[in-house]
Design goal:
Rossmann fold, 203 residues, alpha/beta, cobalamin biosynthesis (chains A, B), homodimer, ATP-binding (chains A, B), cytoplasm (chains A, B), CblAdoTrfase_CobA (chains A, B), 45% helix, 18% strand, ATP binding (chains A, B)
């Protein structure tokens, strides 16, 4: 190794050592363990997808997962894949499609109310470590469910339970109550190039 | 039902009918089917998580998935969970931790080079429908791999193969080559409230 290369390697090591020390100090400063309320919102792709990624993570640590789909109903790859975990994943689909498919407000409201009752039952079930409330933001946006009650119940979830809420246009009250909020921001989308919905990508 | 309720229901139906027609027209305008290059970047949570959610989706449709982790090495819940799919998931971990953990540039570069070779082998394997290149953006940012070569190879992927690249600070040349780019934007993070890294959430 030449002198210059060795200097470069040494500089890199010193810089990284400093960074590691900062990282360690930061990790040591975090001491709270709690069940989190997470919100995935924004117009980009990945909101539900990341929720199902979290499901995998929880399953890998031996937990059980509850999924309530408030709006979507198309058969999805993730549902089929998660069937391999048997009763460690409980899946409930409320709606019969987006509201512009059913075109029937009363039916949509009744379906959402039923889904919300299922959600509360899953949140009360102590064997469940993560509950995914998929597209709940849409139901809240259309006022199919009472926002105050939903946020209060989510905020009062039992210790150790993680809840993920997905969907565009998360309500400010929900964002306020949440521990983690990620906005999936669309930078570039293949639909603009005429690429269609494909199995494995959109569902 | 009173007159007002019935008017309201009718207005809703008419509005949703219009929306559905727009939606249908949009879907009909998309005709291209292709393997996509997806990039999950940004400082928020959900980049790798959404990639693993996509893996579930592909597995649910009967596909095989390749995972190459360029930087991280901590045992993760998603890795354990995906083991249930046997050889339908091929998992390769390159690094021994973030660069500030190893503090050895030469070793990190060699590990990334090996990972990139594995990635190319997975991309060539016609039984694989999705390849996840986890934290490749970090390896590119530290110039551990030649950007031009990597982007050229990704752009020249075979028909029907989806590739997801994750990590902060995606390079502009990669964004340019991608079909879909999502920036996971941090709105609110529990670390700020002193909550620590937890199984099932961060790994």
């Amino acid at each position: 190794m030449s002198g210059t290369e060795s200097d470069d390697a040494e500089r890199h090591r010193a810089k990284m050592e400093k960074r590691r020390a900062m990282q360690d100090a930061e990790v040591a400063s975090k001491t709270v363990e709690k069940g989190l309320l997470l919100v995935h919102t924004g117009t980009g792709k990945g909101k539900s997808t990341a929720a199902f990624g979290l499901a995998l993570r929880v399953l890998g640590h031996g937990g059980r997962v509850g999924v309530v789909q408030f709006i979507k109903s198309r058969p999805t790859g993730e549902k089929t894949a998660l069937e391999v975990f048997g009763d460690r994943v409980v899946w409930h689909t409320a709606g019969e499609g987006f509201t512009w498919v059913t075109q029937d407000k009363a039916r949509d409201m009744a379906a959402c109310q039923g889904a919300w009752e299922t959600a509360q039952a899953l949140m009360a079930d102590e064997t469940v470590g993560l509950v995914i409330l998929d597209e709940l933001n849409i139901a809240l946006r259309y006022e199919y469910l009472p926002l105050d009650e939903v946020v209060a119940r989510l905020a009062a979830r039992r210790d150790g339970l993680h809840v993920v809420v997905t969907g565009r246009n998360a309500k400010p009250a929900l964002v306020e109550a949440a521990d983690l909020v990620t906005d999936m921001t669309m930078v570039k989308h293949h639909f603009k190039a005429g690429v269609k919905t494909q199995a494995g990508i959109e569902y």
